[in-house]
Design goal:
Length: about 170
């Protein structure tokens, strides 16, 4: 979003009691700081669950307190899909009025209108690494706890565009 020229970016964070929700929130803050952008408190809404309904409610709340947002980064694809519902109910269009990006790259996102830009998580690689670690542990290998981070990739589709004046 920053590379597209957005400066008023909101975030729908996932549940903070889940590591996924918390880490993605921290990642959003870090990316904004790295891009030289501040994150006002009213530009972040914390969802209670990773659901479409929570995404719609959170997007509505964000737009109520920060109607000048030009982009929203959602902590997962279901939250992002909920944003589509909230935008439609306000007569706003994605990406003409607000760009949206999700996270996970669920199947069939290319069938949405517009297709959702999403961060692809390497699910197969996660499974392979987890299986390797389990087999290592079962065979009496290392008992050391390790953190393994796998690189996600951005899949750009039609839900993101440079900001337009509203």
């Amino acid at each position: 979003m920053i590379e597209l020229g957005h400066t008023r970016i909101g975030h729908i964070a996932g549940p903070q009691n889940l590591s996924t929700g918390h880490r993605r929130y921290l990642g959003f803050l870090e990316a904004m700081r790295a891009g030289g952008l501040e994150v006002p408190d009213e530009h972040v809404c914390f969802a209670a669950a990773f659901t479409e309904e929570e995404g719609a409610a959170a997007c509505t709340e964000l737009l109520d307190v920060a109607p000048d947002l030009t982009a929203i980064v959602a902590a997962n694809d279901l939250l992002a899909i909920g944003c589509y519902d909230a935008l439609e109910s306000r007569g706003l269009r994605c990406p003409d009025d607000i760009s949206i990006v999700g996270f996970n790259d669920m199947p069939f996102l290319d069938r949405l209108r517009p297709p959702l830009t999403s961060v692809r998580v390497p699910q197969r690689e996660i499974g392979n690494v987890a299986a390797d670690l389990l087999l290592e542990r079962l065979s009496g290998g290392s008992q050391t706890v390790r953190e393994i981070l796998l690189e996600p990739t951005l899949v750009v589709r039609g839900s993101t565009a440079p900001p337009r004046r509203r």
